[in-house]
Amino acid sequence: MSNGTDEGNTEVDYHLDSDPPQPTRDPHEVPVYYRPESQLEIQLAHSAMTRQFTVVRPITPFTTSQVLLVRETNNPGGGEIVLKIYDPRFMVNVRRVIKRTWDPEVEARSVELRQMNPIPDAFAGLPNFCALKKPEELENYVFLRARSDFASELKAYRQLQPLQGKGLPRLFGHGTLTSASMLPDGQPRYINPSALILEFVPNSTPLRDADPAMLRPDLIRSLLETVDSFHTFNVIHADPNPGNILFSPDRAVIIDFGEAYFRSEEESDEDWANAVFDEGDLRWCKIWITKRLGVESLDDYLSTVV
Predict the structure, then answer these.
(1) Which region ranges are annotated with the description Disordered (predicted)?
(2) Which residues pair with 58 in a beta bridge?
């Protein structure tokens, strides 16, 4: 299986002869530029164009990405959309594992490290963080993890394009958060985090919090058909947990493809079929929905209701 794409966070020029950085804040704190009414600018990939957004609210807690509900600043009546940003600084789950908080000076040194030892492929393989000793090496690991997650999601949405707007949110674009967007925080930054611009599914609730009455049989069937078709697009989700499955009054969707796997050109039909079975996207979706409904068998339940 392969996860290959070379798109990810971009780096900006920097100088290390500035004033010493101030201590970083609590990583769980929402930065000022992600708070309601903040203005964010996304530099669109492969384009000179930018798009401006006004934050409606952050969707917290932040874990491996930062999800914001936003409106297009120049089209405030156009409805809410989702901005999903992959900033290594706020990858709380990863930082908890490596036991390192973010520091701007260390981020700068990690950029120097990548300039000396470039890794152009976003899925060349992550280093074993247990073997990393220097702070800039650990910071580089977090950067590479953010880049990998972003690249995986982008590739998955592209390959699953026919399913967008039904069992998946629509992907409207991608790019990087501009340096100007992060200026209000007062901390120097040396990278521009990658971002996806995605459809917002209104009135949706994660499966883990959903009232069983929301889990209508037609929505369940539609979701299972969507998930069962992933392998025909050479994609395995690999993380269909109750937080990644959303139910709304008229749709059920699956999100978060940061752990996705992709079929490589060299992979045989037999090997791919085994990988699909081993990861068990459909099986795990059924398990979690069965538990939420509180029934013995989901197949039996669906066969007895309209």
Answers:
(1) 1-30
(2) 68
Task: Name the nearest CA neighbour of 9 among 174, 139, 143.
Answer: 143
DSSP readout, 135-175? HHHHHHHHHHHHHHHHHHHHHHHHHTGGGBTTTBPPEEEEE
Residue 67's alpha-carbon distances to 47, 55, 56, 198, in angstroms, are: 23, 10, 11, 10
**pLDDT recorded at residue 296:** 94
- What is residue 270's predicted lDDT score, i.e. its pLDDT? 97
Q: How far apart are the C-alpha atoms of 102 and 109, rounded to whole Å?
A: 12
pLDDT at residue 42, as a whole number: 97
- Which of helix, strand or coil describes residue 23? coil
Place of tokens 């979701």: 223
Q: Beta strands 235-236 and 10-11: pairing type?
A: unpaired
Confidence (pLDDT) at 27:
47
Strand extents, DSSP E, 97-244: 171-177, 191-192, 194-199, 205-206, 235-236
Domain boundaries of the chain, sorted by first residue: 10-199, 205-304
What phi and psi, each to the nearest 5 degrees, are found at residue 243? -90, -15
Q: Which helix (H) or strand (E) holds 53?
A: strand 50-59
Higher-confidence position of 122 and 85: 85
- Residue 106's identity, in one-letter code, is V
Instruction: Judge residue 147's burial from the number of C-beta atoms within 10 Å of its C-beta, 0-12 exposed, 13-18 middle, 19 or more buried.
Output: buried
Would the pTM count as exceeding 0.90? no
Beta carbons within 8 Å of 280's beta carbon, 6+ residues apart: none
Categorise residue 280: left if φ over 0, alpha if ψ from -120 to 50, beta otherwise.
Answer: left
pLDDT of 24 higher than 60: no
Q: Indicate the CATH number for domain 205-304.
A: 1.10.510.10
